[in-house]
Amino acid sequence: MSATKVIGISGSPRLNGRTTLALLVALEAAKREGVRTQFISLASLRIEPCIGCVSDDVRKCRLPCVIEDDARLVYNAILESHGVILATPIYWYNMSGLMKNLIDRLTVFENMVHIHGRSLMEGKAAGFIAIGDDTGSIAVIQNLMVILNSMGALIPPWALACYSSRSSIEESERLILDLANLGRAIAIAAKILRGEATPPTIWYRGDSEYVRIAKEALNRAKKAWSALKKEVVQS
Length: 235
Description:
Elements: E1 5-10, H1 18-32, E2 36-41, H2 53-56, H3 71-80, E3 83-89, H4 97-105, H5 107-110, H6 113-116, E4 125-132, H7 137-150, E5 160-164, H8 173-193, H9 208-234
Parallel strand pairs: 1-2, 1-3, 3-4, 4-5
Helix pairs in contact: 1-8, 1-9, 8-9
């Protein structure tokens, strides 16, 4: 197992929602590339809105954040990771409130440029998932891409997967393939950045073998998803 770590952060308030399953598929595909993975649900954490310290004094916005809440758990996970996948449901052409709170609070990572000369998000591979019933997926994806890239993250090829339909994500073979390739791309990019791998000849695999691999990732993700839902019921 590689020392490289990829984390997936879900901004869905519903663990039994499609966004959670989609993210788990991507993480299963990433795991197949030999990296360690971690799933984080923002719904189970208390992350307060940003209070805008940077507006008062640019040097006040820094780690550790002055707000003492569960954002610190996410900060630590990101610091230990080499790749990050953000997954959100689509709320009125944008990300969920849970994800927006986290994004705003990540300003402490980017603003470390003014403290130590380097954004703490710099050099991490980033990928994005947006799932919704209606239109707006590309608006969400492009918003998140601009933000993370502005924080210093690297966005490799095929680092996105989106779905705008009321149907189960399992009904779209193309989406499952996109999710698997997203997880693969983030894992490979993170390993390249650490010097553990070289760029592949092909970043997006659409061959029959990888279709099978993507379906296997879906099946493993469904098992993990079921376990998560049981935890919620028991608690």
